[in-house]
C-alpha cells in the first residue's frame, strides 16, 4: 500500500534544471573550441559543468526521501530499488554499445562486446542509487552521516596507500584506474576521443564518493520535509552548504578537487553548492511564490531519465550518420550553420542550447499527453 507524501515544487524544478544542463554540457557544438563554462576542468579544479552530474545524484537522493515512505515492507523497497538499479545499469550499458555498428573505410563493422564500456553515467547513477538507498533505508540519519565520512576519508586513504608513489592523484597512477583495469580490463574502460589511454571517470572506486552525493540529497530532502517551507529551512541549507564548501576548499589543500577522480573534496563542494541552490529555489518558489518560467524545468523533470537517454542516443545518431565521406551530420550542421552564424565558442553554446530545446520539445509533447516514463 502506498503512503502519500507532499511534493515540493522546488525539488522538482531542481531535477529539471539538472537535466536541462546535463543535455547542454553533453552536446557542445563542434568546429571550434568549446565555450569554456561548457567544458570540464582538465584535471584539478572546478567549472560550472562539473556541478551537473553530482547534482543529478543529489536529485536522486532528494527523490529517495519521498519514495522511501511509499513502501510498508522491506521486501517491497528492496524489490523496487533492485529492479531500478538493474534497468538503469543495463540502459547505460546499451547506450554506450549503441548503435552497435561503426563505420569503416568502405562499410560497417559490428561493435564487439569485448570492447564495450562497462561503466558510465547511468551505470554510476544506478550503483549510487542502489547503495545510497540501502544506507538510508536501514540506517538512521546520524549513521548515514558517519558512513558518508568513512567513505570520503576511506577513498582518500585508499588512493594514498595503493596509488603509484608520487602519482597518487594522476590519471594513470591513481589506485582507481589500477582497480578498473584489473577488474574490467583496458578494453572495457573509457578512452577519450578513441585514444589509447584507458581511464574511466565513472570508474568503480570513485563510485564510493558518488554515493555520498546521493546520501546528501536524501538528508536534504528529509530535512526539508521535516522543517517545511520556512525561512529557517532556507537559512540552515545556506549555512550547511557554506560550511561544506569551506571544508572542501580547506581539505582541497591535501586532496585536490577533481571531478574526473570524484575526489572527496569534489563531493563535499558539490553537495555544498547544491544545498545553497536548493535553499535559493525554496526561497524564490515556495516562500516568495515566484512561479514564472518554472514550467519549463518541471516539464523536463517529469521525464528526466527518458529525456536524458533520448538526448544521448540522438546525439550518437547525429555523430554516426554521414552526409559526406568522413563528415557526420553533427559536424556538418555545425560547419554550415552554427559556426558561420555564430563563429567560435559562441557557436558551440548556441548549438548546445538548440539541441536542449529539441529534447525539451519531446518532453513537452510527452507532458501534454500525460505520458510519464518511470522505472
Task: Map the helices and strands.
Blueprint: H1 9-26, H2 52-67, H3 74-97, E1 101-103, E2 108-110, H4 121-138, H5 141-162, H6 175-184, H7 207-227, H8 231-251, H9 264-287, H10 294-302, H11 304-320, E3 322-324, E4 327-328, H12 329-341, H13 345-368
Antiparallel strand pairs: 1-2, 3-4
Keywords: Acyltransferase, Membrane, Transferase, Transmembrane, Transmembrane helix
Protein name: Putative acyltransferase
GO molecular function: acyltransferase activity
Explain this structure to me?
The protein has 375 residues and is mainly alpha-helical. It has two domains: 1-39 and 290-375, no CATH class; 54-98 and 122-289, no CATH class. It is 63% helix and 3% strand. The protein contains 13 helices and four strands. It has helices at residues 9-26, 52-67, 74-97, 121-138, 141-162, 175-184, 207-227, 231-251, 264-287, 294-302, 304-320, 329-341, 345-368, and strands spanning 101-103, 108-110, 322-324, 327-328. Strands 1-2 form a two-stranded antiparallel ribbon. Strands 3-4 form a two-stranded antiparallel ribbon. Helix 1 (9-26) crosses helix 9 (264-287). The chain starts with 8 loop residues before the first helix and ends in a 7-residue tail after the last helix. The model is unreliable at 1-6 (pLDDT under 50).
Amino acid at each position: 500500500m502506498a503512503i502519500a507524501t507532499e511534493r515540493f515544487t522546488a525539488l522538482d524544478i531542481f531535477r529539471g534544471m539538472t537535466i536541462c544542463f546535463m543535455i547542454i554540457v553533453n552536446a557542445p557544438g563542434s568546429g571550434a573550441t568549446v565555450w569554456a563554462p561548457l567544458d570540464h576542468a582538465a584535471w584539478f579544479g572546478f567549472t560550472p559543468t562539473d556541478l551537473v552530474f553530482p547534482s543529478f545524484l543529489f536529485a536522486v537522493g532528494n527523490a529517495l526521501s519521498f519514495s522511501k515512505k511509499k513502501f510498508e515492507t522491506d521486501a517491497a523497497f528492496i524489490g523496487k530499488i533492485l529492479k531500478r538499479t538493474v534497468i538503469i545499469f543495463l540502459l547505460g550499458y546499451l547506450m554506450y554499445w549503441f548503435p552497435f555498428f561503426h563505420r569503416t573505410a568502405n562499410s560497417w563493422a559490428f561493435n564487439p562486446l569485448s570492447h564495450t564500456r562497462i561503466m558510465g553515467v547511468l551505470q554510476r547513477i544506478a550503483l549510487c542509487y542502489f547503495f545510497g538507498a540501502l544506507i538510508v533505508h536501514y540506517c538512521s540519519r546520524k549513521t548515514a552521516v558517519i558512513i558518508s565520512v568513512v567513505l570520503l576519508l576511506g577513498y582518500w586513504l585508499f588512493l594514498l596507500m595503493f596509488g603509484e608513489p608520487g602519482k597518487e592523484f594522476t590519471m594513470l597512477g591513481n589506485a582507481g584506474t589500477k582497480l578498473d583495469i584489473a577488474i574490467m580490463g583496458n578494453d572495457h574502460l573509457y578512452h577519450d576521443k578513441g585514444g589509447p589511454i584507458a581511464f574511466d571517470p565513472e570508474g568503480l572506486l570513485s563510485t564510493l564518493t558518488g554515493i555520498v552525493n546521493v546520501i546528501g540529497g536524501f538528508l536534504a530532502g528529509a530535512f526539508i520535509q521535516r522543517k517545511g517551507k520556512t525561512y529557517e529551512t532556507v537559512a540552515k541549507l545556506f549555512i550547511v552548504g557554506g560550511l561544506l564548501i569551506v571544508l572542501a576548499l580547506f581539505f582541497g589543500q591535501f586532496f585536490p578537487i577533481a571531478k574526473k577522480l570524484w575526489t572527496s573534496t569534489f563531493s563535499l563542494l558539490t553537495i555544498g553548492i547544491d544545498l545553497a541552490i536548493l535553499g535559493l529555489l525554496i526561497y524564490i518558489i515556495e516562500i516568495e511564490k515566484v512561479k514564472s518560467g518554472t514550467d519549463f524545468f518541471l516539464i523536463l523533470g517529469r521525464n528526466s531519465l527518458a529525456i536524458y537517454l533520448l538526448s544521448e542516443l540522438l546525439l550518437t545518431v547525429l555523430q554516426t550518420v554521414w552526409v559526406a565521406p568522413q563528415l557526420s551530420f553533427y559536424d556538418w550542421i555545425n560547419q554550415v550553420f552554427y559556426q558561420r552564424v555564430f563563429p567560435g565558442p559562441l557557436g558551440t553554446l548556441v548549438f548546445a542550447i538548440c539541441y536542449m530545446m529539441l529534447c525539451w520539445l519531446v518532453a513537452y509533447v510527452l507532458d501534454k499527453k500525460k505520458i510519464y516514463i518511470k522505472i
